[in-house]
Prior knowledge:
Layout lengths: L1 H4 L3 H10 L2 H12 L1 H20 L9 E7 L3 H12 L6 E7 L14 E5 L7 H10 L5 E4 L5 E2 L3 H10 L4 E9 L5 E5 L5 H4 L10 E4 L19 H9 L5 E12 L11 H4 L4
Helix pairs in contact: 4-6
Amino acid sequence: MKDYALLPRPVKDLLRQSVGRNVVGENWWRVRFAAERFDAERAEHTEVSALTAGLDRVPSATVTVVMPTYRRQERLFAAVTSALNQTVRDIAVIVVDDGGGEVDGLPDDPRLAVHRLSRNHGSPGLARNVALRLSRSPYVAFLDDDNTWCPDHLERSLAALQSGAGMVYTALRRLREDGSELDVLSRPFDRAAHRDGEWVDINAVVLRRFAGIRFDPWARPRWVHPREDWEFVHRVSAKLRVRHLPVATVDYSVHSGSYFTDWDASAIGVST
């Protein structure tokens, strides 16, 4: 982060050891961008109010799958299909279009609902919050529009949740466009280490719904670190018992169209 980099080395080392770089950064952004966060919260409330007025019913199922999207129609179809094809059938898939207008041609399934925001907010957190507020379920899972799940992703995660965990995340396989494997993210959770690191991807997370579950709705600039996924996991992990399942049930697409990650040529699989 820019401001953190300006601190003297002894100060940075002390903060990193005692508090954690990500925690320091998150607290700083909350102060610096308080007005922008307030505006985002107000925009979220406006979107939810408008969508609620047009709802016949609020979807209810064992698991709500939250899926924000923005102009990725072909990838979105694969993501939605992988969610609907889970071995756990009692699900509600909630797609929230962040003003992109490209959500046609999705599977015809009564478990799927599509909500269109009035404009592009550029915030996956805001879109996820809309889906959370327009659904009811004891469990919640998250899948972005360019990734897919193995059919047993929810089944494995629910088994762990029903045995006592509050939040579960599985291993995640990162794949290039040609299908080759870049790597696998699989590391047990340690909240103290997580203060200064990131290895839990939101696409692998399934958790018990609880009062107040929500993401930061502020649209973070690309250069701001940490991202909203880290903030969500770190905050929720203070409330819920976290368990890692070292089985890869998520296929994460590594591609040049990623919103927030600038993959180098070797990661994407492009010759230079």
